[in-house]
Amino acid sequence: MPDHENRPHTHHAGRPRALRLGVAGPVGTGKSSILAALCRALAPELSMAVVTNDIYTDEDARFLRSAGVLPTERIRAVETGACPHTAIRDDVTANLDAVEDLEEAYGPLDLVLVESGGDNLTATFSPALADAQLFCIDVAGGGDVARKGGPGITGADLLIVNKTDLAPHVEVDVAAMVADAEAARDGLPVLALSRKDPASVAELADWVRALLVRHRAGVHVPTDPGPMAPHRHA
Amino acid sequence: MGALAALLLGDGRLPVGGHTYSAGLEPAVAAGLTRDRVPALLRARLRTTAVTEAAGAVLALRAAHRTPVAYEPVQRALAARMPAAPQREVSATLGRGVHRLARRLAPDHPAVTALAGLGSRPLRPVAFGALGALGAVMGVTAAELAHAVVHDELQTVAAAALKLLPGDPLDSVAWLLAARPDAESAVELALAVRTPDGLPARAAPLTEQWALDHARRERRLFLA
Ligand SMILES: Nc1nc2c(ncn2[C@@H]2O[C@H](COP(=O)(O)OP(=O)(O)O)[C@@H](O)[C@H]2O)c(=O)[nH]1
Ligand SMILES: [Mg+2]
């Protein structure tokens, strides 16, 4: 049996396998809420599934199931042996198993969202698991987070500056935070998001739709944000 | 290749999902096991489940070297010796990771293609046997394979203990060394098994019960 599972564009019945989109970022920045928002926006038009990674098995999965945005059986949680970091990067076995099981049970799927068990700023997805990844930070973490950098901030396919509705309360200048992020990312996109701002949520959904088009056309190349990029202090 | 392959097989960093497994420690801790009893748990596993696991892997390795490769008898014998369903499921989940690695290394090798021909997912010892039979890439002797399986069992418990019963990581090296006589006899027993019928049924009732309890538990860190 040929080994297909790690080729990004395995065709089955002439169509590439589901796009796997990782969502990483520190705890509490809004990853699960983003998954819920994406399911709400895209499930009517796409066949979707979700995999969550938690320190304790299934907190995120339970949150998403109770949000009622996808049939509950399409939301799986994996055990990470207290190492959510390892499970999305050094050894992605448990996550691949979950993605394959979902594909087998409900496929063909268009989009599988994988939430990292966010522990800190350095955890990013291996391209062996995710074709593309969002990295999520929030204004409540402070205006400096984007400038401090880290592989997710500098290299994720899309950086989200979340909870912009809270900016006035935490005295953060969103425009400046976005500008800092853009400067750190060398042209990669940044999106200011709030679940209270429907236009920003629509923009996020459009970004995912456009990514899916590129994935299906075979022109999206998964890139690894990897370790911190070498940089100079001018 | 043998010596290096044997080290790779027993290396917890082998990316086949081992970090999600505690080799029974988390279920035992939930049932009240304390840190001072970890050496006793290691001894118990070396006299029970580890013998069956290592012997199953050795039988699978030998089957992999025959033509045609037939794993069914050892797969069935192993399943029959894991009475708790969650244990069979976990073994199949762990076997799946090893199978994925074997497919990546040698997709067309008869030892690997025969895994897909099983009616169910290969249990972990079967997948390990297949992996160990990949002569040019991963070939090991039966003794090396049995040592790797036993070593992996010990290290899995020790690594999970750092998460579940925190203490000085250096302690765990001492635990493993103290378990050496039991580890060596587990290897010897495993190597002496010649046929699937002769596979020892070394199950332990408490291990079974804990595995059943664990499968129903919420907020776990490890698969089993
Ligand atoms: N004000 C505000 N709160 C948000 C927003 N998105 C998420 N949250 C809240 O932030 C907290 C953490 O969100 P969650 O999605 O669980 O974060 P995760 O740990 O990254 O998955 C929850 O209390 C959410 O209700 C947002 O856009 N605005
Ligand atoms: Mg979450």
TrEMBL record, chain A:
Superkingdom of this protein's organism: Bacteria
Name any one GO molecular function. Answer: nickel cation binding
CC terms in the record's Gene Ontology section: cytoplasm
Q: List keywords of the entry alphabetically.
A: Chaperone, Cytoplasm, GTP-binding, Nickel insertion, Nucleotide-binding
Where the record annotates domain CobW/HypB/UreG nucleotide-binding, the positions are 22-190
User: What are the binding positions for GTP in this chain?
Assistant: 25-32
Where in or outside the cell it occurs: the entry states: Cytoplasm
* Role this protein plays: Facilitates the functional incorporation of the urease nickel metallocenter. This process requires GTP hydrolysis, probably effectuated by UreG.
Q: Which HAMAP family match?
A: UreG
What protein family is recorded?
Belongs to the SIMIBI class G3E GTPase family. UreG subfamily.
Relate the assembly described in the record: Homodimer. UreD, UreF and UreG form a complex that acts as a GTP-hydrolysis-dependent molecular chaperone, activating the urease apoprotein by helping to assemble the nickel containing metallocenter of UreC. The UreE protein probably delivers the nickel.
The name on file for this protein is Urease accessory protein UreG
Origin organism is Streptomyces albidoflavus
Lineage summary:
Bacteria, Bacillati, Actinomycetota, Actinomycetes, Kitasatosporales
